[in-house]
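Consider the following assembly input.
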Amino acid sequence: MDLFSFTDEFLIDLGLTLLKIGFILAVTVGFFAPVLTWVERKQSAIMQDRIGANRADIMGFTALGLFHIIADALKMFAKEDFIPQGANRLLHTLSPIIALVPALLTFAVVPFGGKYELWGHQVNLVISDLDVGLLFVFAIASLATYGYVVAGWSSNNNWSLLGSMRTASQMISYEVTMGLTIIGVLMVYGTMQLDEIGAAQENFWRWGIFLQPVGFLMFLTASIAENKRIPFDNPEAESELVAGYFTEYSGLKFGMFFMAEFIEMVTIGAIVTILFFGGWHIPFIETQDIIDTFNFSWLGPSIANLITMGIQVGVFFAKVCFFIFIQMTIRWTLPRFRYDQIMKLGWKILLPLSLVNIVVTGIVIMLLK
Amino acid sequence: MELLIFYPLAAFTVLLALGVVFNNSPIGSAVSLIAMMLGLSGIFIVLHAHFLAVLQIIIYAGAIMVLFMFVIMLLNLKGDDKAWKIRERNLYLSIMTGVMVLLALYKMIDKVLDTTFGEGADVPDTFGTTVAVGTSLFTEYVLPFEIASILLLAAMVGAVVLAKTKVD
């Protein structure tokens, strides 16, 4: 058994995969998560007509409040790591990790670009082109529930417990809608592979938003509810439950919940972009056209492909940023819903609507055949 | 290469399965069960049955176990840990349960004894893919599938009726 004899092809693939994982980690944890904490402060300040986020300074420079990111990180590192009396120590420590990992894991199947021919090697800008990618996203989203539920339970605090009960019921309710909306997308594109869904949206009028407009609205609503941000932030409702499921968390463990929320926003943006907004495609411009534009004789096709890759990855993340902006705007516009309102919206409005969406999609597909 | 992944996964799964049985607190058992489901789905992935693996996570780890946790937390069984331990053990009941589990597992044990250790099972390439599962559900097993759906629908309607108590 020759376990450790690797071919060149395998080593190149391995290197590329590691490169992609590194890129995703750098973009989400390294860029989006910290910068979004600043964006959230600055945007809320602008929306509420405040000056906002200008306290932290280095030698008098405030850099628009960007130093708050560093100050936040330092503060979280320096704080005491507190585990309350009577808490389950193992689960209390484990749950921030369980909450953070699924948010990052989703990116394993999210493509951030198409397929490019680089120096005779086919590069597919997705870490794993799993044939059940869409279901994988859904499965991972359902696992994230445990982080929050276990966090509240293991804290030995009634506020926390109430918070995690709310989390559990809210996430179960909206997962149903999310799963059923995904079925609509699946019926339209006939595949569960996310990079194929993205590739199918090269034509502007084939974008998911035109084929599944109701599905898009329901998916966005359900995913914001899954992320437990205002207006769906009952699990942590500050005015009722202190801080809900993370009441008893301090320092970096709290930071991990915080980071999970921001990374989840990026994830939602990425999935919405892939499913409904054409992924990495620019409207009315086909990939081949971009490659041809840059295909000068002195550059060679590989460089042209590389430039196209850069442009399309940029376009993809620009779209992601747009959806993050929408989520932020919703967060600073709407007040918190009441608990029964959230349940009513989930079970009595979104669930029947998503069932109708599936039936209508099916009928339209049958008629067009 | 596959065996390198399989053995740790299998050991992980078995250990956590034992953890479910021997854990003292209900919530610890539930957490072990969830982790065990993840191990199981990992084994499905080793078999290239991605669809089955993801379904394992969605249905068992994602849906059913959340409800388990929800109920355990709702009852808040924390104080019952001690009562759980000192509860009187009924010998006859234990023996009966053991025999029944053995009977239920009889077919599986029979199958396991037929195989040779350390040799991968021979499964078709399409095993557990979306197409294969879908095709067999809607051709070979269409009647049991439909019966199961009606049963589930009846259970759902029943739950709604039961939950709809009149508040005066």
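DSSP finds seven helices and no strands in chain B. Ask yourself how this observation constrains the way the partners meet.
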